[in-house]
Design brief:
Four copies of one chain form a homotetramer.
Chain A: E1 6-10, H1 14-25, E2 29-33, H2 50-53, E3 58-60, E4 66-67, E5 70-71, H3 82-88, E6 94-97, H4 102-111, E7 114-117, H5 122-143, E8 152-156, H6 160-171, E9 175-180, H7 183-191, E10 195-198, E11 211-214, H8 223-228, E12 234-237, H9 247-253, E13 256-259, H10 263-267, H11 269-287
Parallel strand pairs in A: 1-2, 1-3, 3-6, 6-7, 8-9, 8-11, 9-10, 11-12, 12-13
Antiparallel strand pairs in A: 4-5
């Protein structure tokens, strides 16, 4: 990767601001566009218009790149359609964006733009698991009238999030069970010293817990399961839409559920910006830029 | 200890309510007094007056027992002076209270009341360190724009609180330094795999940290030290009055300081109530009751 | 899975003996064959000959199933060719074996025997990583004149073994670096609080370490790398044949290398036998037996 | 402490050799005496006789300083009585020694020698707990046919050694119980997430464990207790003379007991030497040398 590149950072939220600052701190030339209403706006050049903004070795678009039908620019007075964006990009230009919709991928491909989705990269997903896990622990600490130390905690799912949460909760002193479906995941859970549970045989055991954190992308807590819960049990659902809990029934039953989405940007925007920067550097490294 | 005792739980806050509930859950006979305005008031008998309230094998007074010059009863419409309290107690009666002032100890002694200060017991101090540590971690997670994972953290002091905080922060991925004065504490810190620092040689190193948690009962961060801090550094002061930070100067310099007192009752009242119960059981056990 | 099955445990080493004992302890009917010279032979029925041995709901053959061209039976005075074995098995019979060679798989298939390779199952590989990791730690403790606490340790590779070793060494106080090639593995390593290193950029950093444990199935330490090592550095190679170190050059250079193979059976045969039992139960469960 | 001092390192074992090497590596002038038969003898000047050896700003005598009635010099062909030693020392000279007997302290005091017992210092005891703990873990790994991961382990005593062992065994995956007598220690054990046990109420629970490590300086395992043990249970006794186990009865009952003394010098002499050096530096620092 070249020592000194020109980056155009366009749209997004505080994470994009922090990202711009970090890139500049690494010695790159950075200009921004579409972030002018951001509190703590970095002291970096602002492009006058989209065309100027896109004059860069590498353009960085936000995560997610699209909001409604335009570019995701909540901290700007301006708007920009995806069509306008693609029209203004140059063939051969390197563009990094998060959660690229098929329409944009197609249009960029036709134009010859080199568009990379940093959100699709495994290392970003891993790095994002840490602020998500910390956000979930913060929520649990805020809401529970007991300490994590000594609390009976169940994590459902042993993917990236489960693997990041489990050692942290255990180290805080939780009496930890982790539910998974695959025998190999159950072997990992046991090898780590936690209590393994088959996700499909959970039902009658759900009453034991003070805190349940769902990380599985599936509806795991339906009425049947919710009825089993101890009345003071807190549920934190980290599954993306449509979520892992039957929220309506939970509300009727008086079960306390928090559906926590997009934690990284909320609880640790600087860390989230840093993770995006590292991923973009990896993309550029692989491109041999 | 007898299987079934009569406890009178008098005054205090939500911790006393939880304590009453726990005692009843263990099979004891419990009545309360001076907690009637408590939200989530346990469904237990209320004594009609102080005299009825004190008819018990063991009377449990709040932590702290005194507020201004009377009994600490913020969730009651009633008031009660310490003199009236002592007058109503019986010679030979067992009374447990938190932070007993010398005047009360003396008056109780003259009357022949067996008064024990549960707050003076080491096991309660240890058990209380856990909710304090979790409260501090929660505050750090709420306030910092970065994750604990990867943050450069300094704990000042290696007493009970330092020892409780350090393994938790390290397990959350902090790059951890711990400052102490005693060589043996420094040896413990090193043996635990953290970076030891002499408290007296900290000054020029203070600029390295993202988070500083003071647990030492001493004014450790004066103007000279505050000037060294990195501008985004968060300070959490857990020292009791008068505190470990020159708050006025910190405010002038724009250093973010949180003086966090009485965390256990705030962040984990159930755990705090449980710790008081366990300590009272230990007292009764030692008395051979 | 049925409560009470008949198992025939044939050949192998102490792990097979422990496995037979565990199965019997779970209430199953178990007989053994080809283990008669084992020290601590379980007090269970011995089959008189191969034919009797194979009369079972489930036959368990050793890990590895083949030694030279016959069945692996080092603790027996008898011998048995794979042909004879297949001839004696019944069509439809369930047989579990470890490291099944293609020839045996084919012959069993033709005969209609239901042959399952438990060694190919991910959960066994995971469960086996724990005794391997403990064996490697034991070797390091035996050989190093310093404690793991404070030692500068490098793990090469972040597969199952690397993931099992890393948290253990870190918890013992090692100053831990982990080398991997994939960006997502590097992200995991960083998220866990250890120092990430690119395997391809290790060379000039190798001189820093007191202990290097190779878990990668590749020749990672050649002459060039060995020349960089600190003279007191210990290398433990956990890679299976042909190994990850140029052993000849290492010997010439005076580098201390231990090539540690088959640790589970050596350091924790009971744990190894238990892991095989659990895996066989999973196979039977999936078969709906 | 002065940048460059003259140290005379006299007698002792491999730890003294390593200590001499470390002092020289820090830039000090070092000569040795009474270590000439040591394998891996450091390449440092050898004093010709005791008188030359003691010409130093600081003389370092071994741990323990006395063996039988003379100076502890197992790696020397020479011998030296304590009387001769004191006679040759100079009034006002700084001497550091380990486990100083009263006779030597008195004689040195009369002569005006500044004699310091580094073994009496808390920081050395703490630093020594780490190699002792690792040595005990190594023994357990060597002797047990199961992994530490999943083993049911009891540590008796929660002093320095118990506190060092407990987090390590827990991190290796042990199902950990810790027995202590003091309520505050039990509170620490519980706050750390392990199972607390009253030492006096252990008897009927002893049959549950796969491994028992005694760290308490008391005879805790007598016939009554030994009879309760599970037949495969391994006992490691770290108590100094007369030890915490009735060894004779254990032998009769077939209980496997390892009485492990002086582990640091055996399992990690370099670390042990380093700990002594750090302690001597602290002594000199306090003296303002």
């Amino acid at each position: 990767m070249k020592k000194r590149m020109v980056f155009g950072v366009v749209g997004g939220d505080i994470r994009q601001g922090k990202l711009a600052e970090l890139l500049a701190g690494d010695g790159h030339k950075v200009h921004m566009f579409g972030l002018e209403k951001l509190q703590d706006l970095p002291n970096l050049p602002q492009a006058e218009n989209l065309k100027e903004a896109l004059k860069a070795d590498c353009v960085i678009l936000p995560l997610p790149v699209r909001e409604d039908n335009g570019l995701n620019m909540p901290f700007s007075t301006q708007q920009c359609s995806l069509d306008e964006l693609v029209k203004t990009l140059q063939p051969g230009q390197i563009v990094c964006a998060g959660m690229v919709p098929p329409y944009l991928a197609l249009a960029a491909g036709e134009k010859g733009v080199k568009l990379y989705d940093y959100f699709a990269r495994e290392e970003l997903a891993v790095a994002t698991a840490v602020p998500t896990a910390e956000g979930a622990i913060q929520l649990a600490m805020e809401e529970l009238p007991v300490t994590i130390s000594g609390a009976r905690v169940l994590i459902i799912g042993y993917g990236r999030l489960g693997r990041t949460l489990a050692p942290r909760l255990a180290a805080l002193g939780a009496d930890l069970s982790v539910a998974a479906r695959k025998y190999s995941d159950l072997a990992w859970i046991e090898a780590s010293g936690w209590k393994p549970e088959h996700t499909e045989k959970l039902d009658e055991k759900l009453g034991r817990f003070d805190l349940i954190i769902n990380t599985a992308p599936a509806r795991v807590l339906n009425e049947k399961q919710l009825l089993e819960l101890n009345k003071d049990c807190l549920c934190i659902d980290l599954a993306s839409r449509p979520g892992g809990v039957d929220f309506e029934t939970a509300a009727q039953l008086g079960v306390k559920v928090i559906w926590a989405l997009s934690l990284p940007g909320k609880v640790a925007p600087v860390t989230a910006g840093k993770a995006i920067r590292d991923t973009i550097y990896n993309i550029l490294q692989e491109l041999g830029v």
